[in-house]
Specification:
Low-confidence stretches: none
Radius of gyration: 23 Å
Helix content: 10-25%
Largest sheet: 4 strands, mixed
Distance between the termini: 62 Å
Number of helices: 2
Structural class: alpha+beta
Order of helices and strands: EEHEHE
Mean pLDDT: 84
Length: about 100
């Protein structure tokens, strides 16, 4: 036995376990908005974007401009067809 402090046993590192959603799933966020000068509705779909990043304007170039009015937001692919019918939208903008 040696003198002084006993040696510490170093435990092996445990690999990082991801606890969120699986990586293979892609979240689709659908946003219906209206420009301030018109009555026409527009539909943007964002793939793998956080909802907070879409709603906040803290970025240098926000995803949706400050003066646009957000009408409806939905998370999931099913909202694409629902919003197309409800707001009579022909063109969809997809951002990855």
């Amino acid at each position: 036995m040696g003198r002084g402090r006993p040696s510490k046993k170093i435990a092996p590192k445990v690999p990082f376990i991801r606890t969120g959603r699986p990586v293979s799933e892609k979240i689709v966020v659908c946003v219906v908005y209206k420009k301030p000068t018109g009555k026409k509705h527009y539909l943007n779909t964002y793939v793998n974007f956080e909802l907070d990043a879409i709603l906040t304007n803290r970025k240098h170039t926000p995803l949706i401009a400050d003066d646009f009015e957000i009408i409806d937001i939905g998370v999931g692919k099913s909202y694409i067809e629902r919003y197309k019918k409800q707001y009579k939208i022909d063109k969809i903008t997809v951002q990855d």
